[in-house]
Amino acid sequence: MPVAKPAFLFDLDGTLVDSVYDHVLAWHDALLSENIELPVWRIHRRIGMSGGLFANMLLREVGQEISKERIDHLRRVHAESYAKRSAKVRPLPGAKELLAYLTKNKIPWAIATSGRMETAGPVLKTLGVDLKKIPVVTRDQVRFAKPDPDLFIEAADRLGIDITAASVVGDAIWDMLAARRARALGIGLLSGGYGEEELVRSGAYRVFAEPADMLRHIDEIGGRQV
User: Fold this and answer.
1) Using omega within 30 degrees of 0 as the cis cutoff, is the peptide bond preceding 147 cis?
2) Closest CA to 77 of 42, 44, 35
3) 3-state secondary structure string across 158-208
4) What b/e sequence results for 121-137 when a residue is b if at least 16 CB atoms lie within 10 Å of its CB, and e otherwise?
5) Which keywords annotate this record (predicted)?
6) What is the pLDDT of residues 7-63, one digit of tens each?
7) Proportion of the chain above pLDDT 70, given as a percent
8) Where exactly does CATH 3.40.50.1000 map onto the chain?
9) Which of 78, 106, 139, 174 has the fewest CB atoms found within 10 Å of its own CB?
10) 163 with 179: CB under 8 angstroms?
11) CATH class of the structural domain 7-19+90-221
């Protein structure tokens, strides 16, 4: 049987860029705009899933009414608040070097994020991603976001690869659950605030501290130089 080429499908926030806590604070602002007080740590536990599902879960958690209008308002305020912070968001240590290594060695990679392009666009520029060359799948382009597998399946399709030969790289349990549902391998990063045990329990077969740590061990996860 032919050996399938390795490929990597990356989450964005907390995986390649240090933006998780900016999103947490932006969602906190959005909730306060609706007079909803929720501890920041509870918000953090939901970062990484789709915005709509995120809002639904939070509103259920506080026992308040869920309406489309209310969820749309929360998402809009979150986007506005995050936009004020996104200019300060920086790539995580080793992120640019990791992507450059994969490109140099002709190892396919793509980005799949639960964020919409309005929030993902500025940090993609900071990361130096060329949208004409690299597939980037955002929430706008699929029916469901994480923990559903749609984002990663679409990313694999755009690369023209079999997703079962790909590794999904993410910082949240929602990435690992989506990877399992897509039948891809899961690689967890600690850079988004989840613990190693949580990531492993959700499906990660390897866990690294951040992109720089992953790059140091790239030959162990299918990224050997060709």
Assistant:
1) yes
2) 35
3) HHCCCHHHEEEEECCHHHHHHHHHHCCEEEEEHHHCCCHHHHHHHCEEEEE
4) bbbbebbebeeeebbbb
5) Hydrolase
6) 999 999 999 999 999 999 999 999 899 888 888 888 888 887 766 677 777 777 777
7) 96
8) 7-19+90-221
9) 106
10) no
11) alpha beta
Give the residue range(s) of CATH 1.10.150.240 domains in the chain.
20-87
Query: What residues are paired with 207 via a beta bridge?
Result: 188
Residue 43 makes CB contacts below 8 A (sequence gap 6+) with 24, 27, 28, 31, 58
* Torsional sign, CA 110, 50, 186, 126: positive
Return the ∠ at Cα 104 (arms to 111 and 155), rounded to 5°.
Answer: 20
**Domain 20-87 belongs in CATH node 1.10.150.240:** yes
* One-letter amino acid for residue 37 of the chain: E
Query: DSSP 3-state assignment of 27?
Result: helix
Nearest 10 degrees: Cα torsion 136, 139, 145, 149: -30
Opening angle at CA 17, ends 14 and 21, nearest 5: 50
